[in-house]
Structures are given as C-alpha cells and as structure tokens.
tRNA threonylcarbamoyladenosine biosynthesis protein TsaE (Methylophaga muralis), 150 residues
Amino acid sequence: MIFLADEQATLDLAAKLAVLLPVSAFSIHLKGDLGAGKTTFVRGLLQALGHSGKVKSPTYTLVEHYQLNERDVYHFDLYRLADPEELLYLGIEDYFSTNALSLIEWPEQGKGVLPEPDLLISLNYQTSGRQVTFTPYSAMAEQICEKLHN
Ligand SMILES: Nc1ncnc2c1ncn2[C@@H]1O[C@H](COP(=O)(O)OP(=O)(O)OP(=O)(O)O)[C@@H](O)[C@H]1O
Ligand SMILES: [Mg+2]
C-alpha cells in the first residue's frame, strides 16, 4: 500500500512503474471509484513512455491507441460498456496477442471476457489524497511490485 498525497504523487509513481515494465505483452487493470485517479495514473505512464500532449479518456470510443517508441499501448475505459460480450466485437484478442501494453480502466465491466491482468492497480480515496494497492498476477509483475515498494 502506498499513499499518494496529490496528483503529482500519482504521476510520479506511474513514471516509476513505467521504467520497470517489460517490453513483452503486459496488461494492467486499474480499479477505483469515479475520480479515484485511474486516468491520472495512465497519463503518468504514457508520458513517462514518451507521450507528449493530452490523454483523452476513451469513455465513448472504449479504446485509444498510442505508439510510443515502437511500442503499441492501448488505453481502455470500459465504464460505458453495456455488456462484456461487446469486447468480442472490438477484437480484444489482438490487443493481448502482440507485445502490446494494455491499460484498462473499469475492467469489472469486461468480467468474464477480459483475460486476467499481469498487474492490478487499485486506487482508493483518503480524507485527502489517495491510497494505491498493487496486486501482481504474474511472476514478472511480482518482481515489479517489489521494486515499486523500495
Ligand atoms: N493522489 C491524488 N490526490 C488527490 N487528487 C488526485 C490524486 N491523483 C489524482 N487526483 C485527482 O483526481 C481527479 C480525478 O482523476 P481521474 O480522472 O484520473 O480519475 P479516474 O479514476 O480516471 O475517474 P473515472 O472513473 O471517471 O475515469 C483529478 O482531478 C486528479 O487531479
Ligand atoms: Mg478515468
């Protein structure tokens, strides 16, 4: 568990994670209430990976594609997904079959269809600031989490 006092702390932690990510396929689920800081965390990751400019919330498009240093990065926001089956029409297998990095907000909405992530990031409101918990689902993610807590 890590405490994030303000938005900058969220961006800084995301940047710290960015340099630890493997170049192979890796998927991250971001959970937390509305406004908990999921997109902020994604913005920190994308910027640390070389993206400059705005980060659109793909609330209506469901997914936004970035190519950063030859790497495909997919940012999903599944908040408005009506049914997990809709993901099949998006061709989600492709997103996980390459060396892509996928960042998925509201993964609960894709339950049953979305594959298990490598890493789950949970953001929670505190009286002020946020608290973040990392849950690794792969050996690679476990190593990353150890380094993040140091
Ligand atoms: N550690 C933090 N402490 C306080 N405020 C923060 C922190 N991290 C992010 N915020 C602020 O929280 C607000 C909402 O953030 P963000 O849009 O990232 O949430 P979200 O989880 O993506 O919401 P949604 O579920 O609507 O997509 C922003 O104004 C951001 O500046
Ligand atoms: Mg968001």
About this structure: The pocket of adenosine-5'-triphosphate (ligand 1) is lined by residues 4, 6-7, 9-10, 32, 34-40, 105, 129-130 (CB under 6 Å). The mean pLDDT is 95. DSSP finds five helices and seven strands in the chain.
